[in-house]
Amino acid sequence: MVRIADVAELAGVSKATASRALSGRDHVAEATRKRVVEAAESLQYAPSTAAVGLATGRTRRIGVLMPTVSRWFFSQVLEGVQAALVKHGLDLMLYCALPGTPARERIFRDFMRRKRMDGLIAIGIESSDPEWERLRQIDAPIVGVVGTTPGSSLVAIDDTHAAMRATEHLLALGHREVVFLGGEARDPGAANVHRDRFTGYTRAMTAAGLGASVRHVPAPSTVPGGYAAAVDALGSQDRPTGIVGVCDEVAIGAIIAARRLGLLVPGHVSVTGIDDHEYAEMFSLTTLSQKPRAQGRAAVDLLLARIEDPSLAPSTTSLKARLIVRSSTLALDASVAAPGTRDGSHGP
Amino acid sequence: MVRIADVAELAGVSKATASRALSGRDHVAEATRKRVVEAAESLQYAPSTAAVGLATGRTRRIGVLMPTVSRWFFSQVLEGVQAALVKHGLDLMLYCALPGTPARERIFRDFMRRKRMDGLIAIGIESSDPEWERLRQIDAPIVGVVGTTPGSSLVAIDDTHAAMRATEHLLALGHREVVFLGGEARDPGAANVHRDRFTGYTRAMTAAGLGASVRHVPAPSTVPGGYAAAVDALGSQDRPTGIVGVCDEVAIGAIIAARRLGLLVPGHVSVTGIDDHEYAEMFSLTTLSQKPRAQGRAAVDLLLARIEDPSLAPSTTSLKARLIVRSSTLALDASVAAPGTRDGSHGP
After folding, report:
1. How many whole angstroms separate alpha carbon A127 and alpha carbon A192?
2. Do residues A182 and A315 both lie within one domain?
3. Boundaries of each HTH lacI-type domain copy (chains A, B) (predicted)?
4. Domain shared by B208 and B282, yes or no
5. Cα separation of the two ends of chain B
């Protein structure tokens, strides 16, 4: 079996330098690193991470726990986390499981143990959730992304503020019949987020004297979810002229539904989202832009700082969502009357 | 420090049984497992995976290498792999990096080493790719998903056949001007897949005596990619009446583009996909259905078999794609003339 000493000898460096160069843990001059890696490759040296772990007490692995990878926001956060961990030479252990599934239960019961990982990034686990208590027992640093996580560091946008801005944008355009579309209690990993966004919408409506017109059409926060809910909302007698989508996927579903119903966006109905999803531009969607990849990177920074210094107080990194006005929104007095509205007039 | 012997004593079982119950490696009666887990929890026992690894020579970790998690197919395969690994009590180490990025280079150089993982599932690494040679050097079992992987086991659908079936469906409806939309050489992790699908389309066209009408409009295989390419193809003088999308995302982009151009789907243009994406039903998309989650599960089965018995010959699991006819396709003689077509007539 090839040992680190053999690699060091061939590369003409000390064992400590060879070890540092291969672990990527500390700085080694690029030329030296290259020489060591070449020596290791020519000797087919495979360092035993198990042995490294026993020696240092570190696993060099970070756990990432999330409800799903198949929604845009979650996939983007994950890719941001991955990119940052690769830079630090750390492995990413993924635990992806929808709430309420046997896999979820098994992950919490069997996998969330301290010595598997040096720290955990928990995406979409909310403070009200009893699962947080179970996570605390792993006794390793945890950083949350999305939701509220007392006692742990957190990366998030101000969801209340983002939805308030989206609603205010529609109100400033003269819209009065504005519904909040999407979000429901059983949304995996985002129930608090959706509650905060609904609060932001309600605040903006109330501040404009429209508290009595507050209206929530709940739906799964997906494109098909937004589509189905919008078919109902836009097909009803009291059709709104403005829709605040809980996220871009719901807003895009609403735009697709409107077009299928023969309604113009923004001519008959104005729609806003929150995200700046990769499809937002294609649908000319006015939205509050957030950067989930940056949230993933920020979570890694917070986590590594706490691993280095466990006495560090938990902190919150609040990222700003920025309004991007595209052409899914239009001033009410520039809008055309939709077919079948209450005044009986018909659009083009 | 709490040892396994303490847990065994409290649970009233042997050390071997306690170890088996906690590792999930072998069968243990459910009542026994529960007693051991409760004992471990009350003692706050955390097994050292490093020590376990040194003792058994196994890491209990499986690597998953893929170009991206933010495309539907890849995210679904990943969730299928995750669910299967959790059942076996195995950790998933994710290596997600787009080809051509520094992260990709770093992952191949520093992370693909045998003793980090017991085996690797490589999604979207193709046989022609020099990266395959580098992967072979990790000297652990590898199973591929998507593409061709000589010397390793593979899970895939027959891409040539799937595209042939989609094209034949349009030809049987009487369409003659049928283009192939999407797919290009730089598509991350799917260039061979797209080449095979184009081959299937070409074969069906040629068999119908339409070899001279073969037409490829390349585009990134995403919804916005399909949208942009379809705007070009449908806005041109020689507008096709049928579109074979390289995948559902491209086909859906084409439907969105057609509607924006004022064309009816399927009234003016028929569109097919390959996937059965979660949006397919919302767009009434006729498609060839594949089950990427099942492909992920099958990859885990193949990999674990090879880890148990490394002498096992590589095998290929070819899954069938099934035609699902929805209403994005229509017989040519039932179609309406599109506005601005060469005969000068106008649709509704």
Report:
1. 9
2. no
3. 2-56
4. yes
5. 79
Residues B117 and B128 in one domain: yes
Task: Please tell me whether residues A232 and A275 are part of one structural domain.
Answer: yes
Same domain as A139, residue A108: yes
d(CA A227, CA A271): 13
Residue with tokens 């809910």: A229
Are A169 and A264 found together in one domain?
yes
Q: Taking each helix axis from N to C terminus, what angle separates A15-23 and A30-42, rounded to the nearest 10 degrees?
A: 90
Q: Spell out which residues of chain A touch residue B114, defining contact as CB-CB under 8 Å.
A: 46
Query: What domain range is A219 assigned to?
Result: 159-290+324-337
- Assess A153–B contact: CB distance below 8 Å, yes or no: no
pTM above 0.80, yes or no: yes
Judge whether B198 lies within some domain.
yes
ipTM: 0.82
CB contact under 8 A, B50 and A50: yes
Per residue of chain A (348 residues), give pLDDT as tens. Answer: 567 788 888 888 888 888 777 765 566 787 887 788 777 767 766 555 444 444 567 889 999 999 999 899 999 999 999 999 999 999 999 999 888 888 888 998 889 876 789 999 999 877 667 788 788 888 889 999 986 666 788 898 999 999 999 999 999 999 999 999 999 877 777 778 899 999 999 999 999 999 999 999 999 989 999 999 999 999 988 899 999 999 999 999 999 999 989 999 999 999 999 999 999 999 999 999 999 999 999 999 999 999 999 888 888 888 889 999 999 999 998 887 666 544 433 333
Q: Does B88 touch chain A (CB under 8 A)?
A: no
Torsion A94-A99-A103-A106 (CA) sign: positive
Same domain, A231 and A331: yes
Kindly give the interhelix angle for A191-207 and A159-172, rounded to the nearest 10 degrees.
40
Q: Which residues of B touch A54 (CB under 8 A)?
A: 48, 50-51, 54
> What residues of chain B, 159 to 218, have a C-beta less than 8 Å from chain A?
none
Question: What is the CATH classification number for the domain harbouring A147?
Answer: 3.40.50.2300
